[in-house]
Amino acid sequence: MPTILVTGGAGYVGSHTCVELLNSGYDVISVDNCCNSSSESLRRIEMITGKKIDFYEADIRSYKMLYKIFKENKIDAVIHFAGLKAVRESVLNPLLYYDNNLCGTINLCNIMNKFGIKRIVFSSSATVYSDSSAPPFDEEMPTGEVSNPYGRSKYVIEEILKDLKTSDNAWSISVLRYFNPVGAHESGTIGEDPLGIPNNLMPFVTKVALGLLPCLTIFSKDYKTRDGTCIRDYIHVVDLAKGHLLALKEVLTKNTIDIYNLGTGVGCSVLELVEAFEEACNVKINYKIGGKRQGDLPIVYANVSKAENKLGFKTSRSIKKMCEDSFNWQIKNPLGYRQFVK
Ligand code: NAD
Ligand code: UD1
Predict the structure, then answer these.
(1) Cβ distance 174 to 122 under 8 Å?
(2) Residues contacting residue 294 through CB under 8 Å, at least 6 positions apart
(3) From the CA of 197, which ligand is nearest?
(4) Atom of ligand 2 nearest to the CA of 230
(5) How far apart (Å, rounded) are the C-alpha atoms in residues 262 and 126?
């Protein structure tokens, strides 16, 4: 079976994808500097799968380290998750985001070029779509009108990858635009582990449910939506991880550049998610209605026809399952991975 280098493999989406890769028989090498994760997640991946994962604790911006990894291993393709992802932090510190996300990706592509390994799956985001487009978003819609450095870094990397393909047709590239990943592996051993107070809705809800945070603030009930709260396309992280394997298969077997939305194609409002969580987990979520968060769009959901038709992508995990698995992870790991790390 092919050997896959997973950058950012200790992170949320990366760790779930490593599980799916190992369970499907791939050999996996991971590089992560653990700036937003813990190597404990890799130990958990090995526990779940009973398989070994080769781990390099390193920064993808280090040419020397990436060179060493490619020299020591026969790598067939790369799944590239490593990046910073906090929108607000990116507004406060744009250079950090451009340095980490752009320089890291350029360094990675340079080394791949050097070793003649030109197959890559890249984590992009629904955030690249323009505010002016009407949902559902499809891959042909314009991109680039982004309002923050994080989103811009994703847009620019997409453009860099297109340029790379134009310059050298030997590259095979799959760009995956995620909508809102939530949930966790159903064992509850790996999951999303944000540092500090979560920015994203689901980890905030699980912490309120467990009493670790007092109250959720719903960012406004004044949107023009069915209940006044924003609508998003939540996708279970295991369904998302499985999507990576389909994209990987495509880059391993075809010479292509393709962009795919990965979502469910169904929108769910903030209030609907909170209600679904209460019902699925039999808990009450203490919440209040607050003001709008800058940059939030009222309605974001995907048109997933392309991924369905070309990759055979299909999600199977419901909102209920997303809530149950998120809560199960939080209950089993109230302090995330940190309580297990010395
Ligand atoms: P995450 O922070 O959990 O994982 C990213 C991993 O990359 C972390 O383990 C971090 O330590 C590592 N990393 C960051 N910079 C690095 C560097 N320079 N060198 C080595 N490792 C580095 O985030 P995630 O939710 O798993 O997201 C994975 C990817 O998907 C990111 O690129 C993110 O932008 C993208 N994405 C995520 C979401 C989401 O909601 N989770 C949505 C759209 C896109
Ligand atoms: C956010 C980012 C997006 C990024 C994604 C993954 C913004 C504007 N967008 O997406 O670029 O790719 O995270 O990291 O930051 N909500 C509340 N209360 C909360 C938290 C969230 O009401 O405490 C609401 C938000 O207004 C939104 C929904 O819940 O309507 C989902 O929020 P979130 O999980 O942060 O995801 P996005 O905003 O879609």
Answers:
(1) yes
(2) none
(3) 2
(4) 30
(5) 9
As to burial, measured by CB atoms within 10 angstroms (0-12 exposed, 13-18 middle, 19+ buried), residue 232 is buried
- Euclidean distance between CA atoms 73 and 16, whole angstroms: 22
Tokens found for residue 206: 């699980």
Residues 6+ apart with CB under 8 A from 309: none
pTM exceeding 0.70: yes
H/E element holding 327? Answer: helix 319-332
**Mean pLDDT value across residues 150-177:** 98
**Spatial contact of 29 and 73, defined as CB atoms under 8 Å apart:** yes
**CA of residue 314 relative to chain centroid, distance:** 17
Cβ proximity of 80 and 136 under 8 Å: no
150 tagged catalytic:
yes
SS3 for 23-68, per residue?
HCCCEEEEEECCCCCCCHHHHHHHHHHCCCCEEEECCCCCHHHHHH
The response to whether residue 34 sits with its C-beta less than 6 Å from ligand 1 reads yes
Q: Provide the residue type at 165 as one letter.
A: K
- Whole-Å CA distances, 205 to 37, 184, 199, 208: 20, 14, 11, 5
Strand order in the sheet with 257-262: 54-57, 27-32, 3-7, 77-80, 119-125, 172-178, 257-262
Taken as a whole, the chain contains a residue count of 342
Q: How far is the CA of 182 from the centre of ligand 2 (A)?
A: 11
> Is pLDDT above 50 for 327?
yes
**Tell me, what's the pLDDT at 147?**
86
Enumerate residues 6+ apart whose C-beta is below 8 A from 98: 149, 153
